[in-house]
Write a structure and sequence with these properties.
The complex is a heterodimer of chains A (408) and B (490). Chain A has helices spanning 2-14, 17-52, 75-78, 111-127, 132-137, 139-145, 150-182, 190-220, 224-253, 259-279, 285-318, 322-333, 338-353, 372-375, 378-403; strands at residues 82-84, 90-92. With 408 residues, chain A is an all-alpha fold. Chain A has one domain. The longest helix of chain A has 36 residues, at 17-52. Chain B has 2 domains: 2-255 and 382-485, no CATH class; 259-369, no CATH class. Helix content of chain B is 77%, strand content 0%. In chain B, helix 1 (2-14) packs across helix 9. The longest helix of chain B has 50 residues, at 330-379. Classes of the chains: A mainly alpha (408), B mainly alpha (490).
Chain lengths: 408, 490
């Protein structure tokens, strides 16, 4: 019986207008997104090659990851070059895209964005009338008038509905991936393939959350129009409101000066030291320098500690939304997330603070992005568990609501 | 009769679930957003004041000639609309090792987000079934069976629907405005309130645009289910896809050379320029030495009267001596003029070489400006982009305000430079032992007083984009009207 229900659901969806429009939209968007981000990756790679040319001092720069085509995250930040500035602090090169100020206004339309925002909306739209829509047209009453059990019906509807939604998504992603990997510019090693697989798996879990949410709302309402309105509002709250609000809300709990204040203090410390050094006894110079270094280190350490706390609080708040949990998980998997940024900054600090390059024999900066084991550490696992938990919560909710659903 | 239709549409909407959800969501979200952002604004203001005081104190105690270029106080105050809209960070905020990457992953939540995402979605939900829904339920046929023209029905639906849609928005804005006016840390003057009024008007234009889009799609559809799918399809394209794609498309269409590569090329051109200058000058010296002999040695002992030496300070006594000698001896004068001419030729060569590197930067910036302009114009296909330009430029939180601040900063930098130069000259006159590290009293330095750009100038900038929003409204309404005239109500 389960098989028949799944089959009916798939056929029903395949023949619906909703299916055609959502599939057209998502396929076009996925392909366009992969193509646009592939071109962006190309430019980033060119820029990396230019940055890598050693002209003066050690070059601290890492190449863009091909997985950035799918989830760019902070990759542009990560691929800037680092050096030691005039005042002894770490300087960062400008981002290539910073010259076009319009990039500051809009988000990168990568696959992560398409899945997080647009496909989650499509998943909700696929499911919003699964139960209440059938009730409205009277077929639900007929289905349940025979010996069909409600749990089997709801499970069948979930499997049939979700598989008809997810299969075209996989086909579109597959097409995009084939296009990308055929290009000689993209060097995907086995590790990257594994990571891409994990990214797609996490996308599937994420989309299942929204499908289950649509199903739950459909089981809680009796009219498609009501279900649609509620689904869209819940989607807005989960995808936009909580993640974006969490970011500014965290700043209310953690006292942190602006980065301009930190830089001003460092600059003043250096300028003051240079002034005092001129008038001081030469034997005092070394002592003065080490005092300035210690003061500056204390300032930056304090700032970095506060900043890490801010990020932690922000992550904890935003994780209440599946969209944020998915963003953290996906960017960590592709090596373009917050965890990677922290890791890279640590490596840069260690490399640049570790003596100078006067003799020119300093080893070349080498850096390896996080392995799958690192990605699936406590942070990655907690994001993954949150997504699974949301799935269970919404599906169990839908199941319970459907058991008590008045089909008349 | 129009009044009856408006009233009916209005009542129909406000008794609906979507109105209640919209009202509650709008008021809560706007109020929470303004409270958090106002608190954020207070913190930023305190941080800004602290930075200004730090610089003030530093200049009073540690100002010296060679440190001046690092000490120019040009801190940007937080935008006065910060309690409503989070401004775009300037480069100084995003090109630091310790910058905050979270806004890249999650764009900020502010008034713009409420209007562009929540209100536009709400507008579509209010209008997607305005025609198709009534046709399906059969009431449209009954209404048209009376002596009411279709024009009146459409106008009535538009006015009644838009009025009911704008109630949650205006109410939430009033709550926000009340909070801003009673908050002592937010000091808005008349022009700020005028900008707030204009921002509200622009938001209304944007919201009605999406209401009309829903109405238009509804007249093109037979069933509300089809209508909502088409509406959401267009909403996704206009709000979520087109604006985000445009900067990337423009970056592909108009390539900009790498910043690092340009820097390197500039350095390659500039570094030998000084060598070329010195070589030409030294050759001239050799030639003149062989020609003038003893007279040249005398001139040399006067450090060439400062001619051809731009980089170190020549004692004024030598300048004076050389001028006196030239006035007394025409031969000496001729030699001095010849040397000056040679140095001028070498300097011109130096400027020519450096001009080439300046040209590289000029080309780079011209291409960057073209790419930005192209992206901006491409994004105009989307109403969201037009609204964002209008709202940000009106409230001084956008790209234009960044450019404006850069301009103010540069002007102030020049003013401060003139002031500091005068101080250095005065100190040199008064103190013969003055060095690069001597303390300079800059207690009375001119303060940077940032004033918002005039509202008139802002309006001139935003009117074309606002005009596009109005045009979208007109196009959608006319299309809805044309389609409704031949709509089959059965």
């Amino acid at each position: 019986m389960l098989k028949s229900i799944i089959r009916k659901e798939i056929l029903n969806n395949l023949l619906s207008y909703k299916f055609s429009i959502i599939i057209i939209l998502s396929t076009i968007l996925i392909l366009v997104s992969i193509f646009v981000m592939y071109r962006d990756y190309w430019l980033a790679l060119e820029n990396y090659e230019i940055l890598q040319m050693k002209s003066e001092g050690p070059v601290v720069v890492i190449p863009p990851t091909p997985l950035g085509i799918f989830a760019r995250g902070l990759d542009e930040n990560l691929c800037r070059s680092y050096g030691i500035g005039l005042s002894g602090q770490i300087s960062v090169s400008s981002k290539q895209q910073s010259v076009n100020k319009l990039f500051k206004l809009f988000t990168a339309p990568d696959l992560l964005y398409v899945i997080k925002v647009i496909l989650s909306l499509c998943a909700t739209l696929f499911a919003f009338n699964i139960v209440c829509g059938e009730k409205e047209i009277g077929t639900l009453r007929q289905s349940l008038s025979c010996s069909l059990k409600r749990p089997i019906l709801i499970i069948g509807k979930w499997i049939g509905g979700f598989s008809s939604f997810i299969l075209p998504f996989f086909i579109a992603v597959l097409l995009g991936t084939i296009f990308v990997t055929l290009s000689p510019m993209v060097d995907m090693n086995p590790n990257n393939w594994l990571k891409l697989g994990l990214f797609l798996l996490s996308s599937m879990i994420y989309l299942a959350v929204f499908f289950s949410l649509g199903l739950l709302i459909s089981c809680l309402t009796h009219r498609s129009s009501t279900s649609l309105v509620i689904s869209l509002f819940v989607w807005t709250i989960l995808v936009f409101l909580i993640p974006n609000l969490g970011n500014i809300l965290a700043r209310q709990f953690v006292e942190i000066p602006t980065v301009q204040q930190l830089e001003l203090k460092l600059e003043q410390s250096w300028t003051k030291n240079r002034f005092e050094e001129h008038w001081a006894d030469p034997s005092e110079h070394e002592k003065m320098y080490s005092r300035m270094g210690a003061e500056n280190d204390k300032l930056t350490e304090d700032y970095r500690n506060r900043f890490n706390r801010l990020v932690k609080v922000s992550q904890n708040i935003t994780r209440f939304s599946p969209a944020a949990a998915f963003t953290f998980l996906a960017t960590d998997i592709t090596g373009t997330g917050m965890a990677e940024e922290r890791k890279l900054k640590r490596a840069v600090l260690e490399y640049l603070k570790d003596g100078d390059d006067d003799k020119g024999d300093k080893p070349v900066f080498s850096y390896r992005r996080s392995s799958i084991r690192e990605v699936l550490g406590p942070e990655g696992l907690s994001s993954c568990l949150i997504l699974i938990l949301f799935n269970i919560l919404f599906f169990v909710g839908a199941h319970v609501a459907f058991l008590r659903y008045d089909v008349r | 009769m129009l009044k009856t239709i408006i009233t009916r549409e209005f009542l129909n909407n406000i008794l609906n679930l979507r109105f209640m959800i919209g009202l509650v969501l709008c008021i809560i979200v706007t109020f929470v957003c303004i409270i958090i952002l106002a608190h954020d604004y207070q913190k930023e203001l305190a941080d800004y004041n602290l930075r200004v005081n730090l610089q003030d104190e530093f200049l009073r105690n540690y100002a010296y000639r060679d440190g001046l270029f690092r000490l120019i106080p040009r801190q940007k105050p937080p935008e006065r609309f910060r309690p409503l809209i989070i401004g775009i960070s300037g480069d100084e905020n995003v090109e630091s090792f310790d910058d905050n990457p979270l806004p890249i992953l999650f764009p900020p939540f502010d008034f713009l987000f409420i209007v562009t995402i929540i209100m536009s979605l709400l507008a579509i939900l209010f209008s997607y079934d305005a025609i198709a829904g009534e046709r399906q339920s059969g009431t449209l046929r009954l209404v048209i069976a009376n002596s009411i023209s279709r024009t009146k029905i459409l106008f009535g639906k538009f006015i009644g629907g838009a009025a009911s849609l704008l109630i949650p928005f205006i109410l939430s804005l009033l709550v926000g405005a009340l909070y801003i006016s009673v908050n002592p840390s937010i000091q808005w003057d008349g022009s700020a309130w005028a900008e707030f009024g204009l921002l509200t008007a622009a938001s209304v234009t944007f919201i009605t645009l999406f209401y009309l889009l829903g109405l238009m799609i509804s007249t093109f559809s037979r069933y509300p289910a089809t209508s909502i799918l088409n509406c959401l399809f267009l909403w996704v394209l206009l709000i979520l896809v087109i604006p985000n794609l445009c900067p990337h498309i423009s970056a592909q269409l108009c390539r900009i050379p790498s910043i690092k590569e340009t820097e390197r090329k500039v350095k390659e051109i500039r570094s030998p320029s000084l060598e070329v200058f010195r070589e030409l000058r030294d050759e001239a010296k050799k030639r003149l030495k062989s020609h003038y002999g003893k007279l040249w040695s005398e001139f040399e002992s006067m450090q060439f009267g400062g001619i051809g030496d731009f980089f170190s300070k020549v004692d004024p006594k030598y300048l004076e001596a050389a001028h006196q000698r030239a006035a007394a001896d025409p031969n000496f004068k001729a030699m001095m003029d010849a040397f000056r001419e040679e140095v001028e030729k070498a300097r011109k060569e130096l400027i020519r070489i450096r001009g080439e590197s300046d040209k590289l930067w000029y080309d780079f910036h011209a291409k960057a400006a073209f790419q930005t302009k192209l992206a901006k114009n491409l994004a105009c296909i989307s109403p969201l982009a037009n609204f964002v330009y209008v709202a940000r430029d009106l409230t001084g939180t956008g790209l234009r305000s960044l450019e404006y601040f850069e301009q103010v900063k540069d002007e102030y930098g020049n003013q401060f430079g003139l002031y500091a130069n005068k101080k250095v000259q005065d100190a040199q006159k008064n103190d013969p032992k003055f060095t690069w590290a001597s303390f300079l009293d800059l207690g009375d330095y001119p303060r940077l007083e940032f004033k918002e750009e005039a509202l008139k100038d802002k309006l001139v900038e935003v009117l074309p984009y606002w005009g596009i929003l109005v045009l979208f409204n007109v196009v959608f309404f006319v299309s809805a009207f044309a389609e409704f005239m031949r709509y089959d109500v059965r």
